[in-house]
Structures are given as structure tokens and as C-alpha cells.
Amino acid sequence: MESVEVDPAGVRRMRDKGLSAFFKITFVRNPAANIIKQAMLSLGGDAAISYKALVQPGRRTDVVLIGSLAQIKKLPGKLKSQQFGLAEIAEELEGKLAGINYNIREFVCAAGKISFKKGPAIMGIINVTPDSFFDGGKYFNGDAAVEHALKLVKDGANIIDVGGESSRPGSNRISEKEEVKRVIPVIKKIKARTKVFISVDTGRASVARKALSAGASIINDISGMTFDPKMPGLAVRSGAGCIIMHMKGRPGTMQKRPQYNDLMGEISGFLEERARILVKAGVNKKSISIDPGIGFGKTVRQNYVILNRLEEFIALGYPVTVGVSRKSFIGQVTGAEPEERLPGTIAAEAISVFLGAHIIRAHDVKEAAQAVKVSWALRNCDGVKKV
User: Fold this and answer.
1) What's the rounded mean pLDDT across residues 232-256?
2) For residue 277, what are the contacts with CB-CB under 8 A and spacing of at least 6?
3) I want to staple 303 with a disulfide (CB 3.0 to 4.6 A). Which of 35, 174, 190, 329 is the partner?
4) CATH of region 2-99
5) 78 noted as active-site residue
6) Can 327 be counted among the known catalytic residues?
């Protein structure tokens, strides 16, 4: 529309008419499902419901709304005066629609703002552990970890993520004392030698608090801040950025036949609920990033489904963090061992960026940085200056 010189106000009014959208509403009473379908048809869209909704009025069904974003935004107005719980559905749908934001520009943390205006951020991984699945033991020596962190910054990392406890499948927890011993000296030394943003990969509020005092400004919690009830309060008091991840179970058991009734619904529902709890506690919404948790309680196929449908997480309105680096779901389809999975990793990272990811967590920062730039340019090629 801009290329044909449509008035800017007209672009804003008509933009949603050109955006196709699908919304799934779960466990709706059959009479309500039929009313929703008729309302969508009257707006020029449609709704897919179970065929049993017509013959079994006492049952419930899921409803898939189909139409343009403009049409779906008009639906709540048609449902508010209806019975069968439709007023509540309309209110919830309005909230969901209001939260949609495909134009997330920044992630705010205690040390400042990480801008996405020129592309996604890259989070370089520093595992100060003897047993991480790929680089366990390489940087267990604190000085080696610091030197590697500085190299990752030179290679293009915007964030350095320091973790002292392995979360690989089957791993066991270490003591708080040991975790502090591993990560705090490394964070202090990184902070003394570079201005890069530093995140601490931990599920313990006590470790996170010490890490923040040492120079970190982001908490990266694989449990979505469920392991330690003190974590949300710490996030509020410190102003730290919060990366909340979905994980089914715990690292020691998460890969033992993970099952979902609704893969995408359960993951997005968990992340949305955890984000809502943080916001209610006082965390700035711009300080929250969500991570669907590739490899954390998911089968190989489920990991690929999540990446394929990444835009559903983007639509929740928070920056999305993706960590695929050298993980087993790549090895399962390529036959490659962790040290040979760089090509598959780059492919998954590039696709994640093309689908809208905001933060890429990577072991191989230099290679990831190049892939991210190309994928970002492809996604935004309509904005590239003509030559």
C-alpha cells in the first residue's frame, strides 16, 4: 500500500484486512460454537467446529476462527450480548487480540535496552560445567570461560549467557554452593572486561541475586520461574530481564516419553500464564521474553512442529528466544554427533529468524551472526534500499 502512495491513515485502517488469521477457542459449548460460526459467516469469515455440534447440543467442541484479522477483531462485539458463556469468550478474545504485537522493538533489562530494530540479538552460551551435552568441560576453568566469552562478544554476541548447572536430559542438580562457585567469578570477570549484556542461566533465586550483584542483568530460567517461588519477586526488585522457558518435567526425567494433548496450546498457555504472573507482580512487560524450550520435554517431531509454528508464539506479544544449537533433534534427522551439527544448527537458527524469533541462543556465535543477518534481510527485503 505504501508503494502505491496510500494515505498513512488508510494504511493503518486497511492493514488488518490483508492479514489472514486463525484463532483456536477450546472447550466451547456446542450452542455457543454454532453462534460463533454464524457470527463469523456474517462478518465474511468462517469458523470450523465439530460436526457433532449440530446434533449433540449438550457436548463441547473446539472452534477454529478463520478470516482476516479485521474480521476477527469485530467478532467480540457480536458475542458480548449472547448467552452460553459467549460474553466471557468475547472478553478473553478481546484481550488476546489487544496483546498481538508483531512489531516488538526491544527487550528491557537492568543494564539497558536490547534493540531488535536492526535484527535479532544473539546470546552466546558459556557453560561453566563439566557435563553439558556439547561443550561440557571445555570452559569449566573460570579463566577459559571468560576468554571464550570475550571471543563470543567479538564474534557478534549481544548477550553472554552464563550457566553453572547442566540441564541436558538425564542431568542431576548440583548444590547451590557449587553453582555459585562456578558462575559468580566468571560473571564478575566478564563484566570487568566488556560492556556486553550478561544473563545468568539458573532456576535458583539465590544464585540469580548474586549473579545480578556481580554484573548480570538478565535471568534465564528454564523452569519459567516455577522452581523457586522467590524468583518473580527478585525480578521485580532488580529490574532484570526475564527469559522464561517451557519445560515438561525436570531435566532428569523430561525426555521420558513426553506427551501432550495439545502441544502448541499447552506450551503457549504455560508461557502466557507465567508472563501474566510476572506482569501482575510488577515486572515490565517489555522485560519478558518467552522460550518454547526446544529439546526440553519434547519428542523429535514435537521440536520440529514448534519451530514450524513459531509465529504462534510471536503472536503472544513478547520477544521470543530460541535455542536450537547442536541439539539432539538435529542429530536424529541427520545422524550427526553434536560436534558435527553446525550446518543443521545454522539451518534451524536461520528459519527461526525468518519466522520472527528475536533472540537466538548459540554456541557458534560467528556463524550464527552471519545466518541471522541473511535471514533477517530475507524476511525484511521489502525494506532493503533499491540499488
Assistant:
1) 91
2) 225, 232
3) 329
4) 3.30.1370
5) no
6) yes
